[in-house]
Amino acid sequence: MKIQHSLVVTLAILSAAGVALSQQSPAATPSTGESSSRSPRDDVVTKIVALQYYPANELSILLATLAHGQATIIPDQRSNQLVITAPQGRLDELLEVISRLDVADQTAQQQAQYLTCRVYMLELPSKDQNLKSFSVLLERQSDFPTSELMDAAKGVNVQIVTLSQRHQDDRWALALEGRAATNEALQQMLAKITSSHIKELRWVDETFTAAIPAAQISRLPASLQEHIHKLLGDEVQTIGYWFGNLSVPGDLNAPIGPWQLNMKIQPGQGADLVLEVRVTRESPFPFVNESQLFSNTVQSKAGRPIIIGYNRDAYGTRVMGAMVILLEPDTTAPATDEAKPK
């Protein structure tokens, strides 16, 4: 449904939603001793019409054209209703048009109601593949000067990527994220940070997709593989993968590699699909805000690959990457309305 500003109209008296409100035009009141030839079909009435399928704003434009200036039609986009004021005869004609147009689009529902989806996050491998990602939370009674942290990282095979600290309850908390060759190297660095203790330490496994056959680039169509290699290089690898079923409209929230994927899918014009894609990275620490990798809106069709390029900061260097989305009709979807998920 297209979003447009709708005019909000206040009616002085409404009998009930969907019930006609009759009012007699002053011009229709016959003078004393004068006979009137007006029929009930000439009386001006107001009616609120609730729509189920057709966008109120779009239908109001069509009806105004058909009314030839003999009706006032005001859409309320919030409730998807129309407020129509017109002579009773013209109103009856417009209501007949509404009943014929405000129906479900069966063709669109059959073509794109259920989809299978595969999502790949592709990047060149890190030059320091021997380093493993970590996150650590330290606490002490005084703050953590940045110079002290940088000095602690010197001489050991540790890369500090992000750091954030906060003061609460007379104590300082420091959140560190980065990469280290070994746990021993990380412990050597942490030992140099005086008067602190480790509250939490996590090592992140970033290689899990290597064990999933379907996540390999070789499973993509040959023409798409060639295109990806031209964009990112021959050594490109999958670092995040998701697959599953989607309905249209639908909303997906799922982890993909080290990130969180949010994808909303809506029907577009004809057989087109509109996807709103957002990828974020949540910090393991509650006082550190999430970071956004990218946010994009794309339009495509089922069966046509979607490629979204991006670049990100990875351990002090910029890394080029691409998200590939494959949407296909789901042939396993139930055929009857009774079998469809609620």
Explain this structure to me?
The chain has 3 domains: 21-31 and 38-103, Ribosomal Protein S8, Chain: A, domain 1 (2-Layer Sandwich); 111-124 and 207-339, no CATH class; 132-204, Alpha-Beta Plaits, CATH 3.30.70. The protein has helices spanning 56-67, 88-101, 106-112, 146-153, 183-191, 222-232; strands at 21-22, 44-50, 72-76, 81-87, 114-123, 132-140, 158-168, 171-180, 197-204, 237-247, 250-256, 259-267, 273-281, 291-300, 306-314, 317-329. The chain is elongated and about 100 Å long. The strands form 4 sheets. A 4-stranded antiparallel sheet has the order 1-2-4-3. Strands 10-5-16-15 form a 4-stranded antiparallel sheet. The chain is α+β, with helices and mostly antiparallel strands and 342 residues long.
- What sequence of helices (H) and strands (E) makes up the elements? EEHEEHHEEHEEHEHEEEEEEE
Give the strand content.
35-45%
| Gyration radius over CA | 31 Å
Strands in their spatial order, largest beta sheet = 1-2-4-3
Q: With helices defined by DSSP (H or I, 4 residues minimum), what is the helix count?
A: 6
Biggest sheet record: 4 strands, antiparallel
Distance linking N and C termini: 21 Å
Overall geometry: elongated
Stretches with pLDDT under 50, minimum 5 residues: 1-35, 108-112, 335-342
Return the average pLDDT rounded to an integer.
Answer: 81
Supply the number of structural domains: 3
Compute the number of strand runs. Answer: 16
Q: Briefly note the structural class of the backbone.
A: alpha+beta
User: Helix fraction?
Assistant: 10-25%
